[in-house]
Amino acid sequence: MKKKFLVIGNPIDHSLSPKLHNYWIKKYKIDAVYEKKLLNHNKIEGLILNIRNEKIHGLNVTVPFKKMIIPFLDELSEEAKISQSVNTIYKKDNKIIGDNSDIEGFKLSLEKTEQETKNKKALIFGAGGVVPSIIIALKKMQIEKIYLSNRTELKAIELKKNFPEIEIIKWGETLDFDIIVNSTSLGLKEEDEININYQQISKDKFFYDIIYNPAETNFLKNAKKYGWITKNGKMMFIYQAQKAFFIWHKVVPEVDNETINLLDVWLKLQW
To answer: Domain-by-domain residue ranges, the chain?
Structure first.
């Protein structure tokens, strides 16, 4: 019987996790299948029970469940503990373990751009489940200062309790930064805009959007108009998936040009 893996979220239609994981599953001849599932929060407990009963063998977790799912788990990896964010779940020694592959995914993707991070300043939009992972990754890369801006300021204040070194600024305000990261869901819909004054931002800035589908959000389109370097979340998505795949199958899938090009094709087909 094929082992079953899922990605859960709400919304979930945009997720290309099944495409990528099933491509690797076929490539490495693993007897498994990977699907996506739209979930409401009241269904989490039943889903975890299915992992205990081995009806499901692993989960990827996306918005808005990365923190919400933690109380249903038995143990957390070190990175999941620090970030209080889980995106990969599996069963080991009769325990349900929550892990975090977003930290490594974001860090590797940013390193591959060869953008200098040491002693630089970063501004993050959003305070959702993936933001602690981004903060931890940036700190590992020796960023000097992290600013945070969120539509609901209370959520930002709550996050600051775990990361007192970050500075909260008002939504829509921009400062002198080197890297700006959109971690919100603003961009998943075509009409989504992040209302910042792009004209006030000085040159040589790096704009990063964790959204990879669509490949270019309005946030990145606007940045590109002014000549700034932009990057979407495609490589973060691939690298976090690579780590999750290894956790489940003990195989490190190759991230080669074929994999990256296939993802581009899948993205075009969805739009």
So the answer is: 3-100+235-270, 104-232
